């Protein structure tokens, strides 16, 4: 089959916005770009889509190559296609966002791949339109968290209610009423209370909980009432 005639070549890239939660705050995974233009500037994880692979396959490959991360939550976000977004050559970028428990991967990422975690409220200047990508991913995360228990992807297998509260406050950048938050989250039926306690913060300690995966599909619709307005907040 002949090629399409009189068509301009456009490169296709993928960029991965990796969010990680450490029990206190949300963080963003960044690397220093290793080539021109913008060499040694802060960048998201990115690379080009090869001829024999899909965008999804490229995102998985690039994330594993640059960070060692594999099998983590990864979702396509948006295609950034401004003609002049890359000063070298016309390049469209398909952005993805990933959610991980930062503590689970911190040593691997820092020691083996030289990527660095940066608090989400202290993100430095990024190359090209990467800061726009991060802003859009943050809004998408807020929206999805209001209608689906997606934030559990950022937590370890067992966690306390104070840690869960920290996560929601970090994502929504606000303070929630502790009692109301606990009451609403328990009313969803999504959590199983464990006998173990975390006593690192006090002698009394806080009970651990875990996501009830057995009843996850049955109960997750109750999460829709957790945040009344996807663009609003719990009061």
Can you characterise this structure?
By secondary structure, this protein is α+β, with helices and mostly antiparallel strands. It has two domains: 137 residues, Alpha-Beta Complex (Nucleoside Triphosphate Pyrophosphohydrolase), CATH 3.90.79.10; 68 residues, Arc Repressor Mutant, subunit A (Orthogonal Bundle). Helix content is 29%, strand content 27%. It is built from six helices and ten strands, in the order ββββαββαβαβααββα. The strands form two sheets. Strands 1, 2, 3, 4, 5, 6 and 7 form a seven-stranded mixed beta sheet that branches. Strands 8-10-9 form a three-stranded antiparallel beta sheet. A hairpin with a 4-residue loop joins β1 and β2. The longest helix is centred in the middle third of the chain and has 18 residues. The radius of gyration is 20 Å and the shape is elongated. The termini are far apart. The C terminus is likely disordered.
What keywords describe this structure?
27% strand, alpha+beta, disordered C terminus, Nucleoside Triphosphate Pyrophosphohydrolase, 10 strands, single chain, 3-stranded antiparallel β-sheet, Arc Repressor Mutant, subunit A, 6 helices, 7-stranded mixed β-sheet
Per-chain topology:
Layout: E1 11-21, E2 26-32, E3 42-43, E4 45-48, H1 55-67, E5 73-80, E6 91-101, H2 102-113, E7 116-119, H3 130-147, E8 159-160, H4 161-172, H5 178-187, E9 191-198, E10 206-211, H6 216-219
Parallel strand pairs: 1-6
Antiparallel strand pairs: 1-2, 1-4, 2-3, 2-7, 5-6, 8-10, 9-10
């Amino acid at each position: 089959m002949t090629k399409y005639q009189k068509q301009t070549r456009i490169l296709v890239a993928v960029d991965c916005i990796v969010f990680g939660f450490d029990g206190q705050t949300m963080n963003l995974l960044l690397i220093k770009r290793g080539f021109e233009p913008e060499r040694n500037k802060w960048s998201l994880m990115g690379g080009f889509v090869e001829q024999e692979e899909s965008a999804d396959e490229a995102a998985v490959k690039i994330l594993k190559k640059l960070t060692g991360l594999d099998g983590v939550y990864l979702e396509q976000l948006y295609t950034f296609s401004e003609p002049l977004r890359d000063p070298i050559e016309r390049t469209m970028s398909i952005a993805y966002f990933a959610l991980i428990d930062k503590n689970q991967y911190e040593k691997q990422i820092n020691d083996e791949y030289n990527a660095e975690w940066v608090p989400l409220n202290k993100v430095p200047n990024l190359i090209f339109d990467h800061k726009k990508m991060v802003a859009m991913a943050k809004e998408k995360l807020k929206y999805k968290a209001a209608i689906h228990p997606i934030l559990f992807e950022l937590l370890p297998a067992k966690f306390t209610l104070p840690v869960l509260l920290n996560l929601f406050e970090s994502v929504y950048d606000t303070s929630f009423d502790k009692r109301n938050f606990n009451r609403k989250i328990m009313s969803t039926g999504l959590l199983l209370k464990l006998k173990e306690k975390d006593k690192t913060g006090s002698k009394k300690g806080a009970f651990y909980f875990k996501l009830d995966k057995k009843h996850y599909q049955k109960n997750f619709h109750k999460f829709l009432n957790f945040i009344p307005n996807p663009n609003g907040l719990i009061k």
